[in-house]
Structure formats: structure tokens, C-alpha cells
Specification:
Bound molecules: N-[3-({4-[(3-aminopropyl)amino]butyl}amino)propyl]acetamide, zinc ion
Family: Belongs to the histone deacetylase family.
Distance between the termini: 6 Å
Pfam families: Hist_deacetyl
CATH superfamily: Histone deacetylase domain
Mean pLDDT: 98
Helix content: 25-40%
Organism: Lysobacter arseniciresistens ZS79
Protein name: Acetylpolyamine aminohydrolase
CATH class: Alpha Beta
Strand content: 5-15%
CATH architecture: 3-Layer(aba) Sandwich
Low-confidence stretches: none
Radius of gyration: 18 Å
Order of helices and strands: EEEHEHHHEHEHEEHEHEH
Number of strands: 10
CATH topology: Arginase, Chain A
Strand order of the largest sheet: 4-1-5-10-9-6-7-8
InterPro entries: HDACs, His_deacetylse_dom, His_deacetylse_dom_sf, Ureohydrolase_dom_sf
Number of helices: 9
Shape: globular
Length: 340
Amino acid sequence: MKFIHSPLHSLHDGGKELHRGELVPCYEMPARVDYILSAIARAGWVVEAPGDYDDALLERVHDADYIAFLRGAHEAWRAEGRDGFMLPGAFPARGMRRDRVPAGLHARLGYYAFDAGSPIVEGTWRAARASAHCALAAADAVLAGERGAYALCRPPGHHAGHAMFGGYCFLNNAALAAQRLRDGGLERVAVLDVDYHHGNGTQDIFWERDDVLCMSIHGDPDTEYPFYLGYADERGAGAGEGFNQNYPLPRGTDWAAYAATLDRVLERLAAYAPQALVVSLGVDVFEGDPISQFRLGSDDFPRLGQRIAALGLPTVLVQEGGYAVAEIGDNVAGVLSAFA
Ligand code: SP5
Ligand code: ZN
């Protein structure tokens, strides 16, 4: 088992998110990583830094114009004499144009964003790039024969689509790992997303593909973020029909109800006979999470890990959400203990 981490994550800091009409410090904060690293050290596991990867690899799952925007956004902001974090205030909704990218910086910010909760600061691009490199390095470790590899990604990635950021996510680390496994010669890869929130970005990226099965268990979008995607009737299109599967569960779901769905999901996942698995590992399903509504206890995370590990597949685990900062390390390590 390999553990991959980059200290560059801390460059993404200092932004605020619009939360119920107020600007508040982001729930997605650098301290999350400190707690995860402490728990990893307590377990006696050793962390490695990822190598560097060419930005062209990011375009395997993201559009070139989107990558160019992310890369240059904050520099352009500063060139306009602005400073601090960037948040969009207008979005192209029903009846408006999405077929052309406007020229203005603020116009492009809203064009590529889907919420006002994912600020871009000066270091966001470098942090997001390093986060993606952690996922790529973990995929490479599995391609090289490791049974498991954990990418301590921050910022997270599963809400980022082919040309869209939001939900604290800019580059889709799990999608990049899955694509890396495909490019490394594996024919069928599965993504299992256990973050509390629907992995809308991963769904978007692989929507029309049958070579990457996407399964997500999450809070029902009727009431839970990201609201506008993640329903059970979204099953993929074209060649991808049937290769996207969503399992929304109600607020208050505890381990017993969660495990019943998980078992069904794992059975269907195994039937696909993937050659490797990518887990979008959000631990915001924890009962103490400040923005989520499931009721898994800390003791349930080793159980979650054991059930996934029992598939016996080469597995890349990619860190996604989890905002109960003091408990995040133990909860993540609980899952990883089944693989390490
Ligand atoms: C990666 C990830 O977990 N992203 C989650 C982004 C969620 N952002 C908006 C959350 C709004 C939830 N509001 C609930 C209020 C509870 N007090
Ligand atoms: Zn989440």
C-alpha cells in the first residue's frame, strides 16, 4: 500500500464560501490534511510525494479551455488590480447561452462554476494540480502492481466536471486516476463514490462511456448538495447507458441502512468485473460532519473499508470530502486499515 501526499495543498487557503447568504471560511480547509497525516503517522504508514506530470494529462478528462481558465484565472484577477479570493455571482441558467465562452473574467468565472462555494485564490491552481498529481501517482502505483494506493488529495475533485468547477473541486482527481488506469492498459475500471455528496463531476466525465463504471451512494439530491444531479434515473447515455448508477439515500441514514445499499452496489460492481477500482473516499458520511446528514460512526469506517477491500481489486483511494476536522484522520485511517 502506498500513501501519496503533496504539501502544496496548503497554497489553496484563505477563501470564503457563500453559505446560506453569508460569506464564511470554507469548510474545506488545510487543517483537514494535518489531521489525516497525523493519523497516517500514528498507524506507522509512510507518505511519499508524487512526481510531476505534464498538464496535457489533465486534458484526458477536462476541456483545454477550462484548464487554461483555471491556470490563468487568479493572475488575470490580479492584473485587474484585484486581490484575495474569487467567487462567481452570475451563472448561465435556463434560457441563457452556454454555447460561447464570454471574454470578461467575471463572466468566465460564472460560466465555468456551478456554485459560489469554491473560491479561487492565488495558490489554487498549483494546489489543484498537485492534488491531481497525487491521484495520478496513486494510479501509477497500482499499475506497477501495488494492491492499494491512497491519494491524500486536497482540494478534492469529484464535483469537477469536464469543464466545470464547484463543491470545493477544480480538477477531478478520481476521474484522472481512472483514466490513467485505462491509459495504462486496463480495459474496465470502476469508480465507487462514497462521499456524502453525489459525484456529479465524475458522472459528467464518464456519462457516455462503458469502460468506466461509475457508482455513487449519497445523500438524496432532492434536499442535499449538489441538488441538480445524482438521481437514480441517471444511468448514462449512448454506449454509457447503464454504466452510471446512483444510489441516493435519505437524511439520517445509519450504518445498517447504508450497508444494505453498499452490499447491493458492491455486488453489481463485482459483476462488471473491473480490473481496478477507484474509490472517491469522502468521510462526510460521518455523524459529526457539520454539513452532512448521514449517521455513520467512527467504528463504521473500518467496516466500510473491509467490505470494499473484500472485492479483492487493485484499488486507488482518492480523498474527497469530510469536514469534521478533528475526526477526519481517524475516519480515513479506519477505511485505509482494511487495505494497509
Ligand atoms: C467534496 C465535497 O464534499 N464537497 C461538498 C461541497 C458542499 N458545499 C455546499 C454545502 C452546502 C450544505 N449546506 C448544508 C447546511 C448544513 N448546516
Ligand atoms: Zn462531500
